[in-house]
Amino acid sequence: xxxxxxxxxxxxxxxxxxxxxxxxxxxxxxxxxxxxxxxxxxxxxxxxxxxxxxxxxxxxxxxxxxxxxxxxxxxxxxxxxxxxxxxxxxxxxxxxxxxxxxxxxxxxxxxxxxxxxxxxxxxxxxxxxxxxxxxxxxxxxxxxxxxxxxxxxxxxxxxxxxxxxxxxxxxxxxxxxxxxxxxxxxxxxxxxxxxxxxxxxxxxxxxxxxxxxxxxxxxxxxxxxxxxxxxxxxxxxxxxxxxxxxxxxxxxxxxxxxxxxxxxxxxxxxxxxxxxxxxxxxxxxxxxxxxxxxxxxxxxxxxxxxxxxxxxxxxxxxxxxxxxxxxxxxxxxxxxxxxxxxxxxxxxxxxxxxxxxxxxxxxxxxxxxxxxxxxxxxxxxxxxxxxxxxxxxxxxxxxxxxxxxxxxxxxxxxxx
Length: 416
What we know:
Blueprint: E1 9-15, E2 19-27, E3 33-42, E4 46-47, E5 50-51, H1 54-72, E6 78-83, E7 89-98, H2 108-121, E8 128-140, E9 143-146, E10 156-167, H3 168-180, E11 184-190, H4 191-199, H5 202-207, E12 209-214, E13 219-225, E14 228-235, H6 239-250, H7 254-264, E15 277-281, E16 288-292, H8 293-317, E17 328-331, H9 340-348, E18 352-354, E19 361-362, H10 364-367, H11 373-388, H12 401-414
């Protein structure tokens, strides 16, 4: 028997490489959001953000949602899911149409026509689906940086957007896992977009900011300028590589070095006292040995420098270097490493802060951590859909023009 979805309950499901996290929120009459339940379990069926074992993922989803349900005292019917991985691609696009009508005044039909022009210019392959079309700005004749052109006079209307596509097959894997776990899939949200939703401020997005979410299997980044998304990228390296490096460098069991990384790890070796020591076991032996904590940091730091080096390369290759006046916000599990701000500032030469979820209520003491940024952002996205009464997307089976048009209209209608 299908579960009945409650209008005031919104659920975010973060299916990650190292953990599956479910967060339940209650939408209050004043449109504020109250976190009522959190569930988390180790992820055993995902590699670099992509499902590699559906059965293991199904069990993980069930466990995470079940734990969140017990805490919240409600039954979950539907979820908003995050998506990431190398198959996700972001592209900037632009289109132009002549403004129709005798008075040359922009109306809703003109805005839809410029959307349709984007659709034709951004034709996708049948194995690709459009996740998001994110408006950057409109241009009427030579007047740019317009957020809403409705009612303006001119002869030409242009639209600039950032649209994001993903592999249909990878989407279907997620949808099938959610369905087999017993829940209804509502919509996808790109994971760095969700994380940014949770931990960036309005001013940061307007001034220009880079949000870097360091997960277990991937590092996801999103760049905002003038309030709009200008670039997205998925870097296929995350915190799991740091754990692997430690296991090899210390010749110690993965489970133990993971704990060492979380409790004693440091991303910037100069911060570590040379006299501090760490106890580790050799693989296959019960005997312990003593290792300087500085050695642990010296193993971690090069991998973190590599990750931020890839972020720097993305900024440089896309003409965004030096344009983030508000600096960098680092979130996700990797942001909990001590010294993360120092190593990021060293590589990126920008101000850096750790991004915690903002504007949340309810289980703040539990949820106030960078590891929950994506799941909370998914929940916030779902709540916004409820508030503005947008039609919610159903599970998708393919890409194509019609789907892209619906996405473009969906975002242009509600983004400003």
